[in-house]
Amino acid sequence: MTQSFADRHIGPDGAGFAHILAEIGIASAEDLVAAALPAGILDTYPPAAGTDPLAGLPPAASEHEVLAELAALAATDKVATSMIGLGYYDTLTPPVLVRNLLENPAWYTAYTPYQPEISQGRLEALLNFQTMVTDLTGMDVANASMLDEATAAAEAMTLMHRAGRGRGTRLVVDSDLFPQTRTVLTTRAEPLGIEIVEADLAGDGLPGGEFFGVLVQVPGASGRVVDWTGVIAQAHERGALVAAGADLLALTLITPPGEQGADICFGTTQRFGVPMGFGGPHAGYLAVRTAQARQLPGRLVGVSKDADGTLAYRLALQTREQHIRREKATSNICTAQVLLAIVAGMYACYHGANGLRAIARRVHGHAEQLAAALGQALVHDRYFDTVLARVPGHAESVVAKAAARGINLRLVDDDHVAVACDEATTGDHIAAVLDAFGVAPAEPACADIADRTSEFLTHPVFQRYHTETAMVRYLRALSDKDIALDRSMIPLGSCTMKLNATAEMEPITWPGFARLHPYAPATDAPGLRRVIDDLERWLAEITGYDSVSLQPNAGSQGEYAGLLAIRRYHLDRGDTGRDTCLIPSSAHGTNAASAAMAGLRVEVVKCRANGDVDLDDLRGKIADHADRLACIMITYPSTHGVYEHEIAELCALVHDAGGQVYVDGANLNALVGLARPGRFGGDVSHLNLHKTFCIPHGGGGPGVGPVAVRSHLAPYLPGDPLVTDSHAVSAANYGSASILPITWAYIRMMGADGLRRATLTAIASANYLARRLGEFYPVLYTGAGDMVAHECILDLREITKRTGVTVDDVAKRLADYGFHAPTMSFPVAGTLMVEPTESEDLAELDEFADAMIAIRGEIDRVAAGEWPVEDSPLRNAPHTAACLVADWDHPYSREVAVYPHGLAHTRAKVWPAVRRIDGAFGDRNLVCTCPPLDAYTDR
């Protein structure tokens, strides 16, 4: 019998699932649902004939059938030559990076490097990215990527606002800013009380009055290149900071903003080998002066050392992260764009400084050919890749003629057309464009735009890997230093590291999806638009909501969009005083950060000893805030891994007080096919497609965070970012559109029954691990019948108190057993949160449980005095191959150190690249670019 895709996706087979149920004392799937979930929120299970709430989903199809369907859809998309620009450019991704990085599960299934000892490869790759950005922009410190250019600009705005306290609430923005960036800035500014003042800074200079910041673009949306040195100096004289949106390829030739005096640089690295993908995903960037380094939002890779003094990398300044600082976080960003940042960084490594300069000169040379032929129609005489032509009354005709030749130009207005050149532009393209303008070729004046004198990308990492042999080996060497999902179960509670099937991943590099410009004519993308329309409909059906927007390009952005919808709904009804957001103490940190960004005041609701929201405290908070209540944000099942049975009453209490209910969809994988938040009380939810719906984490991004709402909130969903008042939250209308086929394929291959099986298996597997491990590590929170949802929290606090062994020790020791650690100390300090997902089979679940039980045995030996905790295999973990051949003076053997299960154990050995890393040393000595060679040798 041929196996279905669901059989391939779901780990336990029939016998394995039966064994799991028997272990937890459950007779059937129906009994599992009845035991775990509150009856009041359930759809009928199993669904009776004609009553399936997911009946609108298509029937399950095979992998080959779905790939054929997607190929047919991609074939309907018109892959025109894009010369639209506005921050999106065609690029030639080196095939070595496509095959060995973008399509390699060792890279795309990796998790955020919170366990740095087993993440050295992706951390080094991100350090390359940061070094590339700082070198090209002339800044001191860059973060490890942002979501896109527009959101990076918004983060620059809020950074300047924080740093410039007392300088008022006005931000001056140059009129030649990308329009989508201006829209996202407007969205972010309004709830924070920031006033945006637009001005032609190159022509008119700075406006009067007080302002905290200035924001410019290099080159501008029109293609104009301006030397901003004078404006920056004037802004500084008036006490304001300056942020510049900068094209990194242009900066290989022109003086970077950092050398012109700018305080902040932001932008995108899309044209460094990352396909346009109808809008994303792409890695934005944000770079600052050293003075702003500790206020920099997003993640930051830093250099430190391990227990042996070996150079090692880790995430620096983690205490800035939103899950720790909540409403006081520097940002609500949870997902970066790590996979795409690594592609961009490796593109720079592969080409090096000379290669990037050559590409930039070729791009500029094509723009010069256009400019020479346009003559008096040329608007600006200094440009990099984009020329603006004045053709009074003929703009639409020129664009139409070019489109007939398979080329998309940008219609600016009735009298102006912009033409952007890129790495893929050829002489034939230039000839066709000139024909559309009706002008003859002319000899370019060849005025040299290059005025950059400083060197860049001088570190050896940008000089060693220019051959394919060298690059293949470098990528392999880096990935060997990591534990990703292709090597081991990653049992991360709250993060859902499940299978990212190859059939789901394959279409994302197809030209019909990957080479579409987000602002191309709608008629160019009927296939991808069909994928988008289907997904919006399917996700609405799965969640029980009425409308869905796919624009948010991270879960954090989905949260923000949903809260903005609530805020605007209240304002439109005249409820201007509703500014309070209630958030349980157990909630994800992004909830509070998003609420603060949306202009809401956060009030924390207590939880009971069993982990449930304290309804008595909730009633008191509602009474205290009365007419000020805007909403409550709850996660269901809860962040404590439990189905709270009073969820319907909680929703009713808030609704009766005039508030809205935001159900955080982070744990939707424990509901799909069984219960729908839009039907049991939710008004709005965001979903994490990179968790429940199989988009891979990619080392900390990409992600997609659609927002789903009931009909009364639908008018307040984000709109087209090219429309000023659209309340857009990202730079492209459909966010990271090119990875949406992953989720489309997953739902299409699973079908309704497969999705339900996945949910049931995730719940059963979590309860199985809770039962197997509960006698060794107490399970902190359980629901009725001692059941958990899709994850469980193991409480080590008493163990730590008695023995000194910490969650860090257990996490690091798991690497010696070949496993990635569970989530540490979230949502409760001193605990481990375990989520097995439906993708792990019974053998892997047992391997993990056996490892955790063996570690408990090692803890007992510490407790018995056999090993001092300070010199135990737990505290010294992880153990490297190098430490084995060094002097050995420990009370345990080398074999116990690295083969704790014994040499006969069949699990493949994972060798951590470094020993335990000294995070405090790295924070005290903040280094966030590639260290010099002697740092690797002086040990």
Automatic annotation (TrEMBL):
Reported cofactor(s): pyridoxal 5'-phosphate
Biological source species: Nocardia flavorosea
SUPFAM superfamilies per UniProt: PLP-dependent transferases
Domain Glycine dehydrogenase C-terminal: 758-879
Keyword line: Oxidoreductase, Pyridoxal phosphate
Family, as annotated: Belongs to the GcvP family.
Ranges where the Glycine cleavage system P-protein N-terminal domain occurs: 7-437, 464-719
Subunit structure: The glycine cleavage system is composed of four proteins: P, T, L and H.
Protein name: Glycine dehydrogenase (decarboxylating)
Function field: The glycine cleavage system catalyzes the degradation of glycine. The P protein binds the alpha-amino group of glycine through its pyridoxal phosphate cofactor; CO(2) is released and the remaining methylamine moiety is then transferred to the lipoamide cofactor of the H protein.
Gene Ontology BP terms: glycine decarboxylation via glycine cleavage system
EC number per UniProt: 1.4.4.2
Gene that this polypeptide is encoded by: gcvP
Domain of life: Bacteria
Modified residue annotations for N6-(pyridoxal phosphate)lysine: K691
Database matches in InterPro entries: GcvP, GDC-P_C, GDC-P_N, GDC_P, PyrdxlP-dep_Trfase, PyrdxlP-dep_Trfase_major, PyrdxlP-dep_Trfase_small
GO cellular component: cytosol; glycine cleavage complex
Catalysed reactions listed for this entry: N(6)-[(R)-lipoyl]-L-lysyl-[glycine-cleavage complex H protein] + glycine + H(+) = N(6)-[(R)-S(8)-aminomethyldihydrolipoyl]-L-lysyl-[glycine-cleavage complex H protein] + CO2
Entry keyword Oxidoreductase: yes
Keyword Oxidoreductase (UniProt): yes
GO terms assigned for molecular function: glycine binding; glycine dehydrogenase (decarboxylating) activity; pyridoxal phosphate binding
